[in-house]
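sorry to bug you again but im stuck and you know this stuff better than me. what follows is a protein written twice so to speak, once as letters and once as structure tokens for the fold. id like you to explain what the token line says about the fold, in plain words if possible. anything you notice is useful, everything is just below.
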Amino acid sequence: MTRAGFEYILEKHAKAAAARCPTLSGRTLSPHLLRDSCAVLMLQATRDIRKVALWLGHADIRTTEVYLRMDPSEKLEAVEAVLPPALRRGRFKAPDALIASLMADVRTAPT
């Protein structure tokens, strides 16, 4: 099947789908869009960029890394990984045991 043949079949089915689902009308569908959507779903399912790269036939894994930026769950996971822990407002008051431990270290330190 040629690219043009696939585009023709995709357009025919997209029109039929738009007749049943009005939210699809006016949207542009392309073979590349299907490829990208499939790659993102595959990345979400496998969580392995190497498998996606092999499936897409990419010679260099850096080409496949674009799908990491497309996947919202990957973005959210990356953001959550760098968020600082929740901190309470106010002044820090060291517990007495900590102060005693530090003072003992100061007293026993060589001068």
